[in-house]
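Dear H.,

Thanks for agreeing to be a second pair of eyes. The structure we're designing against is below in token form, covering all 96 positions.
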């Protein structure tokens, strides 16, 4: 099992309940593909470095998990088509 971190940037135009549902969907995808979630970090609303889809702010979530090497590709392919997720990135974390 490798250690990964999934960053999800959610549109600031959605309500609190819908943002929570999006994060829950991401966590469910990780678990569906055999991942074990170790930490979820909510950074809240932050200013974007540049305007994306006519938005200057968005909500940032960082989900750390352990999974097989095939899981990130599957997770990213499903997150890519989710509404209100404006950016995402899954990276392998280095062992500390």
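And this is the sequence the design step returned. I haven't edited it by hand at all.
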């Amino acid at each position: 099992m490798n250690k990964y971190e999934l960053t999800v940037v959610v549109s600031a135009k959605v309500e609190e309940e819908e943002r929570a549902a999006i994060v829950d969907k991401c966590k469910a995808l990780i678990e569906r593909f055999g991942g074990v979630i170790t930490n979820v970090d909510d950074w809240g609303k932050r200013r974007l470095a540049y305007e994306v889809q006519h938005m200057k702010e968005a909500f940032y979530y960082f989900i750390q998990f352990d999974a097989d090497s095939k899981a990130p590709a599957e997770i990213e392919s499903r997150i890519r088509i989710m509404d209100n997720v404006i950016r995402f990135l899954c990276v392998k974390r280095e062992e500390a």
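Two observations from my side: Strands lie at 2-11, 36-52, 55-67, 85-92. The CA atoms of residues 12 and 58 lie 5 Å apart.

Warmly,
E.
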